[in-house]
């Protein structure tokens, strides 16, 4: 049974698109003559903010810009000054982007009804979190246990320290009965490091990174492509489950609570060609049904088809790919039948 949920803040429960940190980081770096792209910021979003600045300063291009614009100043001084400037700039925009994302209050009500405990961890500093908490509470969302890296001796994500400290305050002893829910790769890694169940959130999160109005205005095909790309990134990071929005979380919790706990089989591992032993995570994932005509499934299929062309170095103007279902032997025969000239054969 799920005993607790540990939620992220920006991009998960507030700040649709996780925009406030992007704006603040860009303004902080720009103040010192450094141009930094949104993608460069987003790849490590979710870390505590000083560590994030340090990681960006590890980029030789950013180092070169700092040294060119600030001769005589060390990189360590640059980190200190950019981080200090970030704190000023985030304070300017934090509350502006603190609106709750859709589904947050309904999720909180569901958790209360199901007696599921709630905590949060964040890459925010304590001062930032202190600004957010009353704004969120005024909107009906008021978690009682909220951890920053300042409460764990400066150790933030992707280490498990904040999450484990939150569980200690909740008096939950088994992290396997806990969902860690967030929109960044760092959130997923935090959950895995704590041995919790990691759940990624796609829409309105960091990996899509668009305001709600801009996302809703996308053509359906482009919207599906971005959602599929974000899903793949979260699963690749180790997510046990990925949901579109927090509105999908109650159904996932209900499904998990009805599953028979996995028990290791006494049979030997299957290492033969064909069926192989699968992990508990794979077995849990396979319990969720997907419709082959769902937009999400079609978008994923199209992505796989295009990536196969890329692997084969085959131009899309001349070639296409067709996904066929069958055994490994079937796949080998299909590949030979397609790639080997019929007249010469392969032997």
Automatic annotation (TrEMBL):
Name of the coding gene: phnX
Family: Belongs to the HAD-like hydrolase superfamily. PhnX family.
Reaction equation(s) it catalyzes: phosphonoacetaldehyde + H2O = acetaldehyde + phosphate + H(+)
InterPro entries referenced in this protein's UniProt entry, alphabetically: HAD-like_hydrolase_sf, HAD-like_sf, HAD_sf, PGP-like_dom2, Phosphonoacetald_hydro, PyrdxlP-dep_Trfase, PyrdxlP-dep_Trfase_major
Pfam families assigned to the protein according to its UniProt record, in alphabetical order: Hydrolase
Subunit (UniProt): Homodimer.
Residue positions of the active site: 8, 49
A GO MF label: transaminase activity
Binding site for Mg(2+): 8, 10, 183
Taxonomy, superkingdom: Bacteria
Entry keyword set: Aminotransferase, Hydrolase, Magnesium, Metal-binding, Pyruvate, Schiff base, Transferase
GO cellular component terms attached to this protein's record: cytosol
Function: Involved in phosphonate degradation.
Cofactor note as given: Binds 1 Mg(2+) ion per subunit.
Top EC class of this enzyme: hydrolase
Obligatory cofactor(s): Mg(2+)
Descriptive protein name: Phosphonoacetaldehyde hydrolase
GO BP: DNA repair; organic phosphonate catabolic process
Protein EC: 3.11.1.1
